[in-house]
Here is the input.
Amino acid sequence: MSAAPAMAMVLPSSPGQSPGDPLISRLPPVRGRLSVDAPLAGMTWFRVGGPAEVLFRPADREDLAGFLSACPADVPVTVIGVGSNLLVRDGGVPGVVVRLGGPFAGVTVAGTEVAAGAGALDLTVAMVAGQAGISGLEFLSGIPGTIGGALRMNAGAFGRELADVLVSAEAVDRAGVLHRVAAAQLGLGYRHCGAPADWLFLGAVVSGQPGTPAEIGARIDEIARQRAGSQPVRARTGGSTFANPPGHRAWELIDRAGCRGLVLGGAQVSEKHCNFLLNLGTATAADLERLGEEVRRRVYETSGVRLEWEIRRIGVGPGIGPGIGPGIGPGVGLCLSEGETP
Ligand SMILES: Cc1cc2nc3c(=O)[nH]c(=O)nc-3n(C[C@H](O)[C@H](O)[C@H](O)COP(=O)(O)OP(=O)(O)OC[C@H]3O[C@@H](n4cnc5c(N)ncnc54)[C@H](O)[C@@H]3O)c2cc1C
Here is the structure.
């Protein structure tokens, strides 16, 4: 999904200001782009949500590290990939949002290893590997995110996850310090990465086995066919909304709770895959988040299982704010309606 062009004011920045000043004036100078009040909705699959207070597109990793080391410590920094697992709340994201673009998207091959920048699409990594005769990475073609997002989520599909193929990763922390770590040091688990929350991944090395490009290409085609048959892949969605609880499949619990097709405002629980939420075209982030919380409430009522969000929610309300606890959210008003069930 291509991102809509951002309409934002681009301003020069100057260091040495105080916390009361506009954020942009407190940020260090960069070689990349700093944009004020930059729309983020077009950078996410859901296509909802408010702007970044400041959006930073670094020119390269030195630019990023230099910025982080000089950025005042009280300024929140959030990194995003291509927003395929992201719900940006309607009030936008305070602080600096970092988006890693082309300079971070390189992919190179050495033997049966592939080194990819954090901004590279998983699909690109699978394709480059396939063309080089490296098999075992085909599953990445079914995940519509970047390598940075795959590292943070330990993304997986078709029985494999990033942890199975990861050799090492590079990251920069909030102070601008570079870290190079072996895969085992990342504490990867099911949709979980144990790396410090302030790490911005810069890239990864993944490895496969020798294979035949034609056979790898056929497997990638098969994965695309299977996904198109089971997931709303062309919709405004965020992929699986909730992680599978131990011993359960989230979609089965959601189905049993009668939530398939449920509608709230412009948001709907997908008929095709009921662990996916959809923006039908007019949804706000609050519609989507409230619908998700209603699904959690109904699943808890029917099965006693508390679903946990897999989709990352960032930014501030209106709607359900960041302060919501681990339990069931507030009531969602009277606008719920059941959609058609198959
Ligand atoms: C149709 C559809 C199908 C999907 N199918 C699957 C699937 O089969 N398997 C699966 O695992 N996921 C799936 N997803 C979810 C999503 O594609 C993955 O979670 C993906 O890894 C997210 O990558 P992203 O670049 O879009 O990250 P974003 O959505 O932009 O961000 C997700 C999280 O990663 C963090 N992040 C992003 N980049 C970096 C970085 N450089 N450094 C540190 N943190 C970073 C963000 O801060 C955020 O917390 C699907 C999504 C959609 C829309």
